[in-house]
Specification:
- It is a single chain.
- By secondary structure, this protein is mostly helical.
- The protein has helices spanning 28-37, 41-49, 54-59, 62-68, 73-98.
- It has one domain (22-97): DNA polymerase, domain 1, CATH 1.10.150.50.
- It contains five helices and no strands.
- Helix 1 (28-37) packs antiparallel against helix 2 and helix 4 (62-68) packs antiparallel against helix 5.
- The termini are far apart.
- The model is unreliable at 1-12 (pLDDT under 50).
- GO terms for molecular function: chromatin binding; histone binding.
- This is SAM domain-containing protein.
- Pfam families: SAM_1 (PF00536).
- One of its GO terms (biological process) is negative regulation of DNA-templated transcription.
Length: 99
Amino acid sequence: MENKTNGSLEARLVVENGQMPDPADWAVTDVVNYFKAAGFEEQATAFGNQEIDGKSLLLMTRNDVLTGLSIKLGPALKIYEYHVKPLQTQHLKSNANVS
């Protein structure tokens, strides 16, 4: 079931050891597929066009998402708040546990 209204659906990726793979290891196609699965089919192509891989995604600021991808403001806000920011937080937490 996809929730295209607010984009808060957790995108489904291959799960490793009960956890989603580290976004830092994602290729550009993984990033595109993540956003397509999250209900942002149209906006996902912007990530591909800008060659945003997982490492780049984790470095993106709110301003990068809102202005750098040339996507509409509404979807851009949802993408950043419900996906980019949580992925960044998850990555930081998982790396903190490794150290």
